[in-house]
């Protein structure tokens, strides 16, 4: 797994890049990749997202291919886009589960005990720490995860994340009561990136082409 740190990048730029990389991965011109980055303030709507879930019309909005509803991206949030070629025996649910495990293990290094919750993602009790939303194009994954590190959580009140109230969202900084070193979080995720691609059982076939964020 090749990991690239893109820094702070506009959403449209990286969305276009993902499409390019998916085609390159399909043709085996590149290896599996994980893009790590931050976005300026933006709201994205997955396939089940609705415009009425955007409560602040001043924010840019993108309607994208991933599953799920509305979510917010912004500075202080670590976004990861895995461009991974799964086998012909596609099992996206296993891939998403491994992504969750990767984030749980990474935040555990900082003393945060996290795990699954009532909806897809990574939770600390009833507070959502990371959102996950994946799309698949001919067995290659894109979109991915958004881990709140030092995120300004007030921006989640400007939309209905996953159709719910933004007050359910939390961040590593909020849980620890102090800012968190973003480079350290990137390193913790990077160290585990090699295990993002799950082993697929021979009999396992799942035709799901999206997974909610």
Helix-strand pattern, N to C? EHEEEEEHEEEHHE
In the predicted model, the low-confidence regions spanning at least 5 consecutive residues are: 199-213
* Portion in strands: 25-35%
- The helical percent reads 10-25%
User: Mean pLDDT, rounded to whole units?
Assistant: 88
What structural class do helix, strand and pairing data support?
alpha+beta
CATH class: Alpha Beta
How many independent structural domains?
A: 1
Largest sheet: 7 strands, mixed
Tell the overall outline. globular
Tell me the CATH architecture. 2-Layer Sandwich
Distinct helical segment count = 4
Describe this structure as you would to a colleague.
The chain is α+β, with helices and mostly antiparallel strands. It has one domain (2-211): 2-Layer Sandwich (BirA Bifunctional Protein, domain 2), CATH 3.30.930.10. Helix content is 23%, strand content 26%. The protein is built from four helices and ten strands. The chain has helices at 11-26, 92-108, 172-176, 182-192; strands at residues 2-8, 33-38, 42-45, 61-63, 70-73, 77-83, 122-124, 127-137, 140-148, 210-211. The strands form two sheets. Strands 1, 2, 6, 7, 8, 9 and 10 form a seven-stranded mixed sheet that branches. It has a three-stranded mixed sheet with strand order 4-3-5, with no helix packed on it. The chain is globular and about 40 Å long.
